[in-house]
Write a structure and sequence with these properties.
The chain has one domain (11-120). The longest helix has 17 residues, at 11-27. It is mainly α. The mean pLDDT is 93. 50% of the residues lie in helices and 3% in strands. It comes from Candidatus Viridilinea halotolerans.
Length: 121
């Protein structure tokens, strides 16, 4: 049986969908704008991305992984949003680009939700 992300419209499932997009982006050594990511997901507006991106950020932080979400940037500034506080954006981005994301099993929606719950309460 085939499962579709649209059939699971909750934030942890959407975070997994974004994870898959971002590891491909990392492999290609690219960034993408919030608007581009929202369009790929068929979301109305980029503002709805903060919740699923936060799931990914929490998972990365709690597991000692590079901040995968730093690849999503504002179209005007070319920088990640205010929710992502990095001391060395270029260094962190290089860590994301150089990490072997395809060697990891993607996190389950449950693992993403659990990481966010543990970090944010």
């Amino acid at each position: 049986m085939i499962n579709w992300f649209e059939e699971h419209p909750n934030w942890p499932h959407r975070a997994l969908q974004i994870w898959l997009i971002l590891i491909g982006t990392a492999y290609s050594r690219q960034t993408m704008t919030y608007g581009q990511l929202a369009a790929m997901l068929r979301f109305e507006g980029a503002g709805v991305l903060s919740n699923p991106l936060d799931h990914i950020l929490c998972y990365c932080e709690s597991n000692g992984l590079p901040p995968l979400t730093c690849l999503v940037v504002n179209q005007v500034t070319g920088l990640p949003g205010n929710g992502l506080q990095l001391d060395d954006l270029h260094g962190d981005r290089e860590r994301v680009y150089n990490f072997d994301w395809y060697s990891l099993m993607p996190p389950s929606p449950e693992a993403l939700a659990e990481a966010r719950q543990e970090m944010r309460g």
